[in-house]
Amino acid sequence: MTEIPNRLTISAGRMGMIELYQPIYGEEETGAQRMCVDRWTKMKEHLPKGKFSFMDIGSQIGYFTFQAAKEGGVSFGVERNKRYCEVAHAIKSIRNMDHVAFLNIGIDSFTVKGLPNVDVLCCMSIYHHWVRESGFEEADKIFTELTNRTNSIFFDTGQSNEQDVDWTKDLEFMNPNPIEWIEKYLKSKGFTTVKQLGEFATHLSPVPRMLFFASKDK
Ligand SMILES: C[S@@+](CC[C@H](N)C(=O)[O-])C[C@H]1O[C@@H](n2cnc3c(N)ncnc32)[C@H](O)[C@@H]1O
What we know:
Layout: H1 37-44, E1 52-57, H2 63-70, E2 73-78, H3 82-95, E3 100-103, E4 120-124, H4 127-134, H5 136-147, E5 152-156, H6 178-188, E6 193-200, E7 209-215
Parallel strand pairs: 1-2, 1-4, 2-3, 4-5
Antiparallel strand pairs: 5-7, 6-7
Bound molecules: S-adenosylmethionine.
């Protein structure tokens, strides 16, 4: 049985310890690597009013997936790590969240084709993983498929100006100004309005990441 025994770690029984990148939904003070509530407070202002569909790519233990459901979304988390998904399922059960589902699958340029269209896409701190693991061309194919499935997106990514991280070199195509590069990139995918929601700290480098909200004209 999966347990949530204390505020600092999740012990998933025989599954062992997992990295607590996000807080456990419903327990904000979990000592997670990223606070998340700082990003969510800004994001919330841009959600559609009433009911909407939401898909969170690289959902980790579902913090943003659950928050979107709380605001009226039918909310899907997509996560390749089995343990993170199992923990997310346990939190779903403990918190009685009916309008949330998690899909344990790794997204690449093939599997992305199986994902649904949604009102709001959340693609945060995962793009640079695709670049690092499979190169820009593959990352771009995935991102094009994803952005074809939505009219609005929350987006942040590892940036080429982050220090002491192992993907800086892989992201050199963002130079000299990664924030300008991301803005142009989102526009090239059909988003007509691109807003900067602010810069948010990571645990990896002293350089914060810019969070964007972008939408297409109706
Ligand atoms: C740095 S964490 C970001 C988590 C969350 N999106 C956030 O911003 O708080 C990246 C997450 O994406 C997942 N991930 C990495 N590559 C993936 C892939 N190809 N398909 C699905 N999930 C992936 C990782 O397991 C991890 O949970």
